[in-house]
Write a structure and sequence with these properties.
By secondary structure, this protein is an alpha/beta fold. The chain is built from 15 helices and 19 strands. The relative contact order is 0.12. The structure holds adenosine monophosphate (AMP). Adenosine monophosphate binds next to strand 15.
Length: about 400
Amino acid sequence: MSTFRSIENADVAGKRVLVRADMNVPMQDGAVSDATRLERVLPTIRSLTSRGARVVLLSHFARPKGKRVPDMSLKPVAEKLDELLPEIPVRFAADCIGSEAEQAVGALADGAVLVLENTRFHPGEEANDPGFTAELARLGDMFVNDAFSVSHRANASTVGIAGALPAYAGLQMAAEVDALTRVLEHPERPVGAVVGGAKVSTKISVLTNLVKKLDCVIIGGGMANTFLHARGVDVGKSLCEPDLADTAREIMKAAEDTGCEVLLPSDVVVAKEFAAGAANEVRALDDVPADSMILDVGPETCAALKSRLTDLKTLLWNGPLGAFEIDPFGEGTFGLARAAAKLTKEGRLTTVAGGGDTVAALNEAGVTGDFTYVSTAGGAFLEWLEGKELPGVAALRVA
Ligand code: AMP
């Protein structure tokens, strides 16, 4: 298996190290409202600065489409980073290439940090333009990618530059790839996955890949309704994609061929409206009222899934089992998440979860810290689950 160059063994003292981070953080009223992504890159920054590197941070922010959009500046993000790193000076340059960037990089002291302006202010970033890549590369002696979450995009700051400078994996990137490889490529078996969320249409390739590789797949959320429908269950007014019934049947057939068990709900929680506190009841599958929708898995399903978890050694999780944002339809997701967290704490299960909604659900269940690894990546995490090689990761591999 190919590996990465690790920053831990690199001689970085006095070097200008270009670090691709994911600083595309949620903002409100011009200030960072959730710094999770910034916190995740701190270990790499500290590892480099503590050894005398001059760290130059690169990131995109939002979608300015190749133009300078003042509201999409990384300046407030640099200010937040300065707060998070009180022991390290953090400066900001108002461009990521050209004389302004070059002067700011030239003025950097050993052990200091510079944040460059949004790479997407230049069209060359998303076009992975060689000219733009060369301008970025002039600013560094080596490149470190610590942004797994954008490694599904072949941009100048993720892929182009990895070919122009000696390229290394940051600590977060290495941990993320290691966790995902451990679950999908070399898992301790039996290995299962929870795949939930709204629609089958967004996760067909994920399901198709997972049933080939895993011992069991638990399907929940709105997408379970399409599978139930494909099995002849009347799902009433539930979110369902009847056009994908054949696809659901093909996935179930593929699972049967490879000996992967597909687990669907056996009872469900239904309500007449998609609203917090809506009157709800538990129903058997053959008893879903025509005017109601399925919004969560039922208690019998929950108990069966919890028991199934105790047979597994490895669990991957993407997507909620129900409409968890709306009380009380998060019970199935939270209950199963707590059971998985408990088994992890007891050393009986390795748990790797990812995706925006999944992280929100695990946070709400209070178990994020108890899982073995939780990825904040959305699109990149899903593409990895689809079995695709991510260009940003591939560009870092050494044969
Ligand atoms: P995804 O982005 O595909 O992971 O989907 C997450 C969304 O699926 C969440 O906003 C949930 O509220 C929604 N969801 C989960 N289960 C259901 C359900 N049974 N009916 C409608 N929406 C659901």
